[in-house]
Amino acid sequence: MKKQLREWGIFLAIGLFLYFTGLYTDVAALAQRAILSTGLITADTELEDPEKADFNFTLQTLDGQMVKLEDFKGKVIFLNLWATWCPPCIAEMPGIQDLYDKIDNEDIVFVMLSMDNSAEKPKKFIDKKEYTFPVYLPASRVPDVFRSPSIPTTYVISKDGKIVSKKVGMANYDTKAFRNFLNKQASKVSK
């Protein structure tokens, strides 16, 4: 019994150390990144019943400029909701950056929507990790169609304004199948 208590005490001490030093998020994200590297969790493609996206939404860049989601209408939109305090969000980011680097199509735009309360944390995080994809904050109420019970959540909006893919939870987006899916969406003629 003493041995079990000691083992649990050590485990608890490590957990508390990671939590109070602020390393918990990084360590948890690293473990989840290892899970993503197995290829077991991949991005969803093609919803059976796509719903209409709501473009009545204003975004703010990390340097304070206002952008309307409507400005991207007619393009394929990769919309990812994330936050700096979310380990699964951080775990999937290297794959999203790789996807962003490999997509060479002006008809596909990335909207990395930080759910942090201010621009300071995501800006510091993005700069530290040297990510180059565009990051925004909500500057108006997030439309109901983009509300999710948890983050990360990723939506792909087609050129004709329908949500054709939705993934709640982390995934590996840097796969040939997902790149083909995005490019196929971009090649479709919008109605």
UniProtKB/TrEMBL annotation:
Residues 48-187 form the Thioredoxin domain. It holds the Pfam family AhpC-TSA. InterPro entries: AhpC/TSA (IPR000866), Thioredoxin-like_sf (IPR036249), Thioredoxin_domain (IPR013766), Thioredoxin_ResA/DsbE_sf (IPR050553). This is TlpA family protein disulfide reductase. It comes from Fulvivirga kasyanovii.
